[in-house]
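Human: Note token order:
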Amino acid sequence: MANNIEGSEGKTEDRSSATKATTKSTKGKAKKRKKGAKGKKSRAASAQAQPWTFPKVTLERAIELAQVIEEKNAGNPIRAEHLAPMLGFRKALDWRFTDILRSANQYGITEGTGITATVSLTHIGRDIVAPSSPLQRQAALIQAFQNVELFKKVSDFYAGKPIPEDEYFGNTLARDFGVPRERVPMFISVFQANLEYLKAFTSDSVGRPIVSISRREGVTTPGLVESAPTQSPAEAESVREFLDTCFILMPFGSWFDRYFKEIYVPATKEAGFEPLRADGLFSAGAVMEQVWAQIRKAKVLLADLTGKNPNVFYELGLAHAARKPVVFVAGDIEDVPFDVRHLRVVVFDVREPGWSDKLRRDITTYLKNTRSEPEKSIPQPYREFPLDEPDGQPLDQTVPVRKSRK
């Protein structure tokens, strides 16, 4: 009996020791996990504390802020709290607005950052939004891009050489240029978007493209250059001159392509807009995503409703849903839905002498009027009930509160 008791006590002591050892091991693992988590948090906090050496938004987006100052405040200095609503944000405290404001400063197109700052255009900003010539705008765009030292260093490093895949490009950015790993994807996105934007503004007068494109083994290589061979006529025609775009909705092929080239393009440029058409934009990716992106970016749209093409009408619906002003063109008034005939409609008749010249002049006039009075080219329901603004809340719409009956 005593032996049994002693054996039982021994087993109890063994179990107790095992339990203590397990508890100790568990606590040790928990401490290691906690220490590891603290280490990760510490490294993340350390990375967050590092200053941003490049803008968080693209040059194109930052220029929108400069355009607002020029168009809505006559180019005069303006307080950030008043500038934010003009750009579509309720308050200057919105982090998206502060990112745009800080980026515009980094590009050197504005001065003054912070929610209490007075924001003003720099000479670079003025040359971009209100230049005396296309060449002046092109030079200012280069200056804005190169004003970000990191962008200039990376573009100089890869000038004339192919940029590798994102993995290797990211490794180079982290090792050789000191970009924190967690910021590499954003850098690649903003950097490449800027190069594509600059490439569109290639000079067409002295043959000096802003961005040189060379290809090696199927790889596209962007890089800023000082000079390049004279452009071909086809390249010169595709050069972009204006910041504001006019997205043209129309069928492709047959006579429509000729109308686009000989009538719509010159008429749109005469009105001060850059003409864009879907077939000139498509790259890898979903087609409708790219169409939607261009509709959202466009200052105004021109829709050829001749023949009642279903694709054109679908895209027209997207444009109205986005509250974009649209000028209609049609060879027959019956091609224009009755519900929108009260908006700006240009009707042409190919049987009339000089019809193409008249159509070009009419389109230019209507587009210019639309710039000054965009609301007259947007259907009334969309004017009254706008979509959400960039900050997630509409600026001029309040949510009705239903009162309970007593």
Q: What stands out?
A: Residues 48 and 180 are 9 Å apart (CA to CA). Residues 244-384 form a domain with the Rossmann fold fold (CATH 3.40.50.450). Residues 204-210, 212-222, 226-236, 386-406 have pLDDT under 50 and may be disordered.
